[in-house]
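Hi there,

I know you've been waiting on this one. I reran it after we fixed the sequence typo, so this is the corrected version. Both the input and the resulting structure follow.
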Amino acid sequence: MKKMSAEEVLKEILSNGLECLKELSVHDEFSNGQRYVFVELLEILQKWEKAEEYGLTFNIEEKFPLI
């Protein structure tokens, strides 16, 4: 496993989190739980000083509503 800097890790988490939310189109109990986790994770990542540099400039819950 390649070692990564903290910034590389955060970029990968952000990228994967967004991709997973885009793929979660089914609205069942399990998918809603997954969606909640990813939305919360991305909201935490918005606190990162470089979040805007990586496109995290939108309201996550508006784009990926929790049902």
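Quick highlight: The helical segments are 6-23, 29-45, 60-63.

Best,
R. S.
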